[in-house]
Amino acid sequence: MAQAQVDEWCAEAAKHHYVQVSDTHYAAVPREARGVPHQTIPALHAYLDDYVDGLERARALIGVEDRRTVDSLQCLPLSPFAERQAPHVSENSDPTVPKRFRNPDDAVGAEGRAFQVDATCADVAILREPLVSCAAITSPQDCIFGQAQPFLTSMIGAAAALARLARSLTLIQCPNRSNDGITPEEDVHLLYGLLKDYYSEEAPVTDHSGLSHYYASVAAVLLNSIFTSGHRMADVVIVDGNAKGPAACAARMRAQETAGEEPVGAPLKDLVRPEEYARGKAWWAPFARPHKHLNPWTHVSPLLVLLSRINGSLDLPLQVYDEVWAAVHGLVCQGAWLHASPDGLRPPVAPSPLAGLRAASHVRAEHVTPTFVGKTGDLHDAKPAMACVVGVLPMGLQQILALLKGASADERVVVNYAQNFSFLIYRPSAAPDIVTNAKKQRSSKAISCVNVEGDEAAFGTRADKLEVCKLHRIAWRINLDLVKPLCLRVAAPRPNMQRSRGDRASVDYCKQRKRELDEEGLLTKQQVVADALIKAAVLGE
Questions:
Q1: Staple 418 to which of 66, 300, 385, 475, CB 3.0 to 4.6 Å?
Q2: The model's pTM
């Protein structure tokens, strides 16, 4: 963070340094809660207050208000899909060949691939070669960090969020319908209709009673995180109209509720400035094409339908993996090309990574694999650092989702992310614009993200790194300013009963007491109840 930006943050933090804790008292924000946190904390950062209040409500419903435990919602990252295909390696440098670590069956056709006990079999991979290249360490030119898999992973994550949102919309509009009686195709069609009304300049032609435009504003951001508006380093990925839509729509809904009206929000044209709406409408225009074979939504919906139908199941036949890969391939190639094309027929134009490609069938691995550092110069081979044609890095999607959460309660929040994918995110101390005390350039090893000399073939020359370093600092500044409302809005202290939960002294006492009971061969009440429940479950009682 540059000194100028630090000063801006300090000035903004000073405005909210004192928080009202009662009718007569204010308290200063603790020093530990100031600035940029490594992670946001419920009950400390105010944008998570809805989450905390929901957990408190759950405690009241199940009657455990007096328990000393700290509650949280945790997601186990378990999925039927895995992407850990063995990287390409030089056959001469593979130490497992003479030691016969591999099973005989696994060794067939394994020459030139690294040995990994948990490697994903190519038959069940959903990101397959040749479009999505596996990592390779076979020559000095191979860049192990410049891979498309992280971008495509976030693309699938955004698609999964859209699929769940589509199902939620159907359940909200038709609460009396059973979950089994709803088809994924109906969910996706309803979501698409809501998006069309959100961008329309006219009155909606379909009945979306019970649904607000806020759902469409969230879906627009998620879809925009797949079909990004900028691919170069430090480019923002969400068009400004879409980025400001969720916070503006939530503010409009609060105003409508205060006025006694139904809180449905408003279409995008009534939420942002005309020029911002025009840019948002231009981004949405490819999805509004009447001909299906020219509309990129035709290649988005199959993936949403598949993810909704799979619904997290781990028992999948090989045919389903093939269908998922076909849907991913169609979205990456046909979907991205159609969205970048001016009319669905002509080739995309610069600055799109697909500029000049006459057909979607021409999209190859070189367009999907990001350009990690780029190449400077005025010659024909100069190429800027470029992200994958779709998606953002996982940390970018995490930032977008956090900002979406904050936008529901803070109209200052702009949901966006600046592309930041090059070498300094792996080793910030390798910044080539940092010099020695004698004002001399540091060694090539010091500015290498892998801390070795001679990495120019894979990670660019010093001039290339300097150019990208400037863009890194721009991206850091943009992203820090975007998350500023989340970091600096500190919540008022919770009641003492809530803040004392999980007290370390109490936990240490419980541990010590449990050890004493174990030494005596005694069980706690919780263990007795748990054993009874397990026994009843095993016996089917």
A1: 475
A2: 0.89
